[in-house]
Design a protein that fits this description.
The structure holds 3 protein chains of 3 kinds.
Chain A lengths: L2 E5 L18 H15 L5 E5 L14 E4 L5 H11 L4 E7 H7 L1 H9 L5 E6 L29 H4 L5 H5 L5 E8 L3 H19 L4 E7 L3 H4 L3 H15 L3 E5 H5 L1
Parallel strand pairs in A: 2-3, 2-4, 4-5, 5-7, 6-7
Antiparallel strand pairs in A: 6-8
Helix pairs in contact in A: 1-7, 3-4
Chain B lengths: L5 E4 H12 L3 E4 L6 H13 L3 E4 L3 H13 L4 E5 L1 H5 L2 H10 L3 E9 L5 E4 L4 H5 L10 E3 L4 H18 L2 E7 H5 L1 E4 L26 E2 L6 H21 L3 E4 L6 E4 L2 H16 L4 E6 L1 E3 L3 H8 L4 E6 L5 H9 L7 E5 L8 H15 L10
Parallel strand pairs in B: 2-3, 2-4, 4-5, 5-8, 7-8, 12-13, 12-15, 15-16
Antiparallel strand pairs in B: 1-9, 5-6, 7-14, 11-13
Helix pairs in contact in B: 1-2, 1-7, 3-5, 10-13, 11-12
Chain C lengths: L1 E5 L9 H5 L5 E3 L11 E3 L10 H5 L5 E6 L2
Antiparallel strand pairs in C: 1-4, 2-3
The chains are: A alpha/beta, B alpha/beta, C alpha+beta.
Chain lengths: 251, 365, 70
């Protein structure tokens, strides 16, 4: 007798369209969030916030209620929803430019208030949707369309380390940085995303996961080379790991 | 709700009316001259099991409002002038998303920080807006503490009925002054928001609220639909005050607190035999162009009075263009120093002589 | 043994599944799909063990179902 061992999560629409480029890690991240919503049994009471950037078309694939946010404002929008409907599960799906550049104030203050929401951040060291400009997380020496000779600290500063900042914010309950460069790392990422939602469900504060993700199109690399970059120079600067875990402490 | 007359400050009146209207969520950042609204609600809302968030900025506050409104609850923010400037991005999204919510804008003097004096310098900010794209913020302007209450109710009702952001445009004088008023019962029917609001996709297809739209035809249709809504609002929800318009030779146009002072001057003019009337739009946006045009066809001239350098004046002129060729005079000053009844009366007298009696002996303004 | 349901029209040909498959069951198709990509396909001569690694690494959710039979 044949057993079903895997199927598309219910929290992904049946008529889904993955709007990302070939080999982009976004697709895996989206599916992991959907799998976690399924496993926690919260799909029917979840409201997601689509940020500006490659995630703006989140309603093309997430099978949950979605509201769009202006660039960077997702965690303010999440605050408004959660405070008005505390029984709903609220999450933002944002890029690093959205969460850590234009929206850094909204991010830090929502987390300082310890909003019981979950924030997923895709860090791909560039502004993907607008064509690969330098962002807050662009690595030193990285060539982008606005750092054509490589990012130089004296001209454009240093990459911002999001987890290292957010772990110091008292309202965060779970802070982790993960990668999606291998099957094992994908399994680990899912575990962390689940914890970030559990933080919300247990009312412990904000759950946050930063996902080091590829942008093969703008990095001008194959998906395979992109994963090697995540494992290599990206992980050297942005060290993967669990930075804060009040969820496990609470057990 | 006490339902009895009490001495109330405008800002507290607005806050109490918001509570009475069933405002479920309030988000705000302090700025004079409206900070009492947030102060009052910071205690009252949690006591009632409702949401109050002291936002980190007006940028955050307006986006919290967007989030709250997207769940269908009655939600409000309040702010003033340079801080309302910070909200323009959010307001454009809220209008594009067709999310109901209320913005209380208590004008102070500008530009920039200006100062906390009463002002009508944000008529254009409220009615023409600084956000991108084709949209309007429906705007009502009170002229008394009682109207601050009544129009707060109206703002919640119109926002919920038409799924649109609505602005209560008061000024520092109304926010800060005290006068007797009654916080009565919320007089409007409750509008069911369950057909569109986000509450989790249980036993139904997921919903999405977004201003982004890839299909150009759909994008166009949506904006056209939003503008049809503004037409319906003008048709069904228009409020205005006409005073001594019948038989008037000169009509004063004014809104908000200045209109109240102007009305006293009009009374004085009538007593002295001058055929002067007053038209006060209370719904400022969409602007009641037709009514202004009808009035213009029956009078010799219009004197527009504002505590700014001539903002509503643009709408008055646009309303009359091609309909009546009568002189439109303006009396105004940059925000700060309030006008007295006598000052306005003097202007009325001068303009009346010039336009109605064709006596050009006195220079006007 | 195992079996996968691969929607060839959802595949964008990143071939991360081909690299990840421990039994090298997947390969690139020689015919394009409706988006114009050469999608991954199952090489029927190799044996799928139903581990679902391909589905877990696929960024396009093109592998919709995975079955396993003892």
């Amino acid at each position: 007798m044949e057993q079903l061992v895997y199927k598309k999560p219910e929290s992904i629409r049946d008529d889904f369209k993955i709007t990302f480029c070939p080999g982009c890690d976004h697709g895996v991240a989206v599916r992991l969030v959907a799998e976690v919503l399924d496993e926690l049994g919260v799909r029917e009471k979840t409201i997601g916030i689509a940020s500006v950037g490659c995630s703006v078309f989140s309603y093309d694939f997430f099978n949950v209620d979605i509201v769009e946010s202006a660039h960077g404002r997702s965690l303010a929008v999440a605050t408004g929803i959660k405070r008005s409907k505390p029984d709903k599960v609220v999450f933002t799906y944002q890029g690093d430019g959205d969460l850590a550049s234009i929206g850094l104030a909204e991010t830090i203050h929502a987390m300082t208030r310890g909003e019981n929401v979950t924030a997923i951040c895709i860090n791909n060291t560039t502004y993907g949707m607008t064509g690969g400009q330098a962002g807050p997380t662009t690595l030193i020496g990285q060539i982008t369309t606005t750092t054509t000779k490589g990012r130089k600290p004296e001209l454009s500063g240093y990459p911002l380390k999001i987890c290292e900042i957010l772990k110091e914010v008292d309202g965060t309950a779970y802070v982790a940085r993960v990668t999606l460069d291998s099957y094992q790392s994908i399994l680990n990422a899912k575990k962390c995303i689940k914890k970030a939602f559990e933080a919300q469900l247990k009312g412990l504060g904000t759950g946050f996961v930063e996902i080091l993700a590829t942008c093969p199109t703008n990095w001008k690399m194959t998906p395979q080379e992109s994963h090697a970059r995540v494992r290599g120079e990206m992980s050297e600067v942005f060290k993967p790991g669990v930075y804060k875990d009040k969820v496990s402490e609470a057990v | 709700m006490k339902n009895e007359k009490e001495l109330l400050k405008g800002n507290y009146a607005i806050a109490q009316a918001a509570i009475e209207a069933g405002c479920q969520s309030y988000f705000g950042y302090p700025i004079t001259p409206q900070s009492e609204i947030g102060e009052y609600l910071s205690t009252k809302m949690p006591e009632m099991g409702r949401a109050f968030v002291a936002a980190e900025s007006e940028v955050a506050a307006i986006n919290m409002l967007l989030g709250a409104g997207s769940t269908g609850v009655k939600a409000m923010t309040s702010s003033s002038s340079c801080a309302v400037s910070l909200m323009q991005e959010g307001l454009s999204f809220i209008a594009g998303d067709e999310i109901p919510c209320v913005l209380v804008s208590v004008m102070r003097a500008g530009p920039g920080l200006g100062y906390i004096y009463p002002s009508q310098g944000d008529y254009l900010q409220a009615t023409k807006g600084g956000g991108n794209g084709d949209y309007k913020i429906v705007t009502y302007a009170p002229n008394s503490v009682q109207e601050c209450i009544d129009l707060t109710y109206k703002c919640f009702y119109v926002s919920q009925k038409y799924r649109t952001p609505v602005c209560l445009l008061a000024d520092g004088m109304l926010g800060q002054m005290m006068e007797p008023a009654v916080v009565g019962e919320y007089p409007y029917e409750e509008i069911d928001q369950s057909s569109w609001a986000l509450d989790g996709a249980k036993d139904r297809e997921p919903r999405h609220i977004a201003s982004i739209e890839r299909d150009q035809e759909t994008l166009k249709t949506r904006v056209v639909k939003i503008f049809e809504k503004y037409n319906r609002i003008l048709e069904n929800e228009n409020i205005f005050e006409k005073y001594e318009i019948d038989g008037a030779k000169l009509v004063i146009t004014a809104f908000g607190s200045i209109a109240r002072i102007a009305k006293a001057a009009v009374k004085m003019a009538r007593k002295n035999g001058l055929k002067v009337g007053l038209f006060r739009p209370i719904l400022l946006n969409p602007f009641p162009e037709k009514i202004v045009a009808e009035i213009a066809q029956k009078v010799d001239g219009i004197l527009d009075i504002e505590l700014n350098c001539g903002q509503m004046l643009q709408d008055i002129k646009a309303s009359i263009a091609g309909v009546a060729s009568i002189p439109i005079e303006f009396y105004g000053r940059p925000a700060g120093v309030m006008m007295t009844v006598e000052e306005i009366y003097k202007q009325i007298e001068n303009v009346y002589k010039k336009i109605v009696e064709k006596n050009y002996g006195t220079a006007c303004i | 043994m195992g079996r996968i349901v691969l929607n060839r029209d959802k595949c964008k040909a990143c071939y991360l599944c081909i690299d990840a498959c421990p039994k090298k069951v997947l390969e690139a198709d020689s015919a394009v799909n409706e988006m114009g990509y050469y999608p991954a396909k199952v090489n029927s001569e190799k044996e799928c063990i139903g581990c679902a690694i391909c589905a877990k690494v696929c960024p396009d959710i093109a592998i919709e179902k995975v079955y396993y039979e003892k």
